[in-house]
Amino acid sequence: MQQTNARAKSTLFIALAIIAAVPLSAASARPVTVTGGQIAGAPGRDPSVMVFKGIPFAAPPVGNLRWRAPQPVDAWQGVRRADQFGSSCIQTIVQERKPWTYEFMAHNSISEDCLSLNVWTAAAGPTERRPVYIFIYGGGNNEGSTAVPVYDGETLAKKGIVVVTVNYRLGLFGFFTHPELTQETSYKASGNYGILDLVAALKWVHDNIAAFGGDPAKVTVGGQSAGASNTHVLTASPQVKGLFRGAIAESGSSITGGPNRKLAEQEQMGLKFAAAKGASNLQALRAMSWQQLQSPVSGSGSDGFPANYRFSPVIDGYVLPAPINDVFAQKKQNDVTTLTGSNKGESGASPHPDVTLEQFRKLAAARYEESAEEFLKLYPANTDEEAAIAQNNAAWDATRVSTYLWALDRNKTASTKAWTYFWDHALPGPDADKYGAFHTSEVPYVLGTLGMSDRPFTADDRHIADTLTSYWANFIAKGDPNGEGLAKWPAVDEKSGLTMELGDKTTAISVAGSDSKLKFWEKYYSRPHPPLPRP
After folding, report:
1. How many CB atoms lie within 10 A of CB 411?
2. Is 443 left (phi over 0), alpha (psi -120 to 50) or beta?
């Protein structure tokens, strides 16, 4: 009898060992335990990758929880299927807004009950400790979703990264401020609920990612556009100290900084919004449906206040204690390695600028004032054609220098390194010549999601994507994008005045065309002024 029991125990031990060794991707029926209960994912397009979609990481922010920090997730019974994306957060769903076509847009249902995340992993089991990347979508903090096709995490997962994408509240529901909301909190602030959602997701990753083969001590946070801006907010926030070690900001780093709106200022916007909705207090606002709240406000008031109320991240003293640049200057930031850059088709540049010589000179006089003459010598033009070329050259230099100067300022109080890039490859398609390397066009390459689009990609595109996903995977894994078989990418403090060209070429280039141009932009950015406009 003892021998039988011993044999049974031995058999059970062997069976458990075999189960533990089975890759998550080959054991889709095996549930994973996370905060709230058990979930079962499904194999990805590549069966070596396991995908878990629509995992709730907080309670639904509805009813009395609308405009509150995310609360603990509601537990569930049994095994929850995690094979479909959760609803996108409240926003206006559009099919395309060129140059952003189908693959860049959300298409699923929307709901206030939207706080879910997704995990892609190719780990052999929970005992692995793979580096983790939390990707934050863009969309001006007014739209976006983890269900957007190009945000798929499978390619990076195949390169050894556990990828997490997070839904966070947007627009009015993510950033509304009001004096009553401020008073009801223990920390005496309101707004930034979308950022607090990301804080909650970071804490969820810290507590749960090991179950997917991820290492909570090797987390990188990153995003594009608003996702990059939100990454900077997290880097400056004391609420996530110690929860990540790296940051990636695509099209989101500028020496001019941001956000700079203070809580008291945006609270006044909240009061005006409530009045426009006929709500005398917070209770009345919470009693309204999201459709009522989301409907346009009729007309502007006599004070010129706009009909469309655009709430955004604010300096609230809690999530964001001060302007981000000030937090860095005070050496109070989360000191994490950083990779950041911009695109060729941003900040006023385009493949075919619509500007005349007269317009170019007038704009230079208005923007550069006493430095306009110097600017026109550095970027000379005597015809409309030359003005178009000069405008693009100036926009590219201004963008690259702004990012470079931001990184230099960052380095003054950071013990970690920073790398910058300039993306210049046009996304193929019928509008490639019109839009070029537009805002967001790098995302399918850095995430390796060319297959999520029907664009006419070539072998060159696939090579570029393989190169960029390798740089990104290296940075996430070891805090340095460089690796075997890749062109050397110098950190900002290695060689002065350089950034990395990515796309059509992969090489280090000057941030400006000459030392005199670099000095011009350094002088320009040393004075207070609004940032250069984006198209």
Report:
1. 17
2. alpha
Hey, what are 163's tokens? Answer: 């990828």
95 secondary structure, DSSP code: S
Rg value, the chain, Cα? 24
Under a CB-based contact definition with an 8 Å cutoff, are residues 161 and 132 in contact?
yes
**DSSP per-residue string spanning 100-142:** B-GGGS--S-B-S---EEEEEE--SSTT--EEEEEEE--STTT
The candidate with the shortest Cα–Cα distance to 518, out of 378, 373, 409, is 378
pLDDT of residue 90: 97
Give the pLDDT of residue 77.
97
Q: Is the CB of residue 162 less than 8 Å from the CB of residue 456?
A: no
Rounded to whole angstroms, the Cα distance separating 446 from 224 reads: 11
DSSP state of 238: G
Catalytic residues: 225, 346, 439
The amino acid that residue 303 corresponds to is D
Q: Nearest 10 degrees: CA dihedral of 286, 198, 25, 126?
A: -120
Sheet of strand 32-34: strand arrangement: 32-34, 37-40, 79-81
Q: Please give the Cα distance from 92 to 75 (Å, whole number).
A: 30
The pLDDT value recorded for residue 310 is: 86
Expressed in angstroms, the distance from the first to the final Cα of the chain is 80
Counting as low any pLDDT under 50, the low residues of the chain are: 1-21, 26-28, 300, 302-304, 532-535
Q: What is the pLDDT of residue 298?
A: 67
Note the pLDDT of residue 274.
95
- Residue-wise pLDDT for 159-178, tens only, equals 999 999 999 999 999 999 99
How far from the centroid of its chain's Cα atoms is residue 475's Cα? 16
Question: Residues 450-483: pLDDT tens digits?
Answer: 999 999 999 999 999 999 999 999 999 999 999 9
Kindly list the structural domains of the chain, giving each domain's residue range(s) and its CATH number in brackets, ordered by start: 24-71+88-265+313-354+393-516 (3.40.50.1820)
